[in-house]
């Protein structure tokens, strides 16, 4: 049996929404294994002096849990190292 867990992240880039998404996946992959997909839920852009300065995304990353790991021991804080 395989179990997939989803976590929600936010990311930003001065280049594009695609770059913000790519950066989120690359950063998450340092802490997570078996990333299977990403779903971008929301897009936002910061504007300064009538120019877009930051592209922001809120996304969900799905990853498959290892068979040997317990679902109960895998909280978002533990996986990502966020306090």
Automatic annotation (TrEMBL):
InterPro entries tied to this protein: Dodecin, Dodecin-like, Dodecin-like_sf
Lineage of the species this protein comes from: Bacteria, Pseudomonadati, Pseudomonadota, Alphaproteobacteria, Hyphomicrobiales
Protein name (database record): Dodecin
Organism domain of life: Bacteria
UniProt signal peptide: none
SUPFAM superfamilies tied to this protein: Dodecin-like
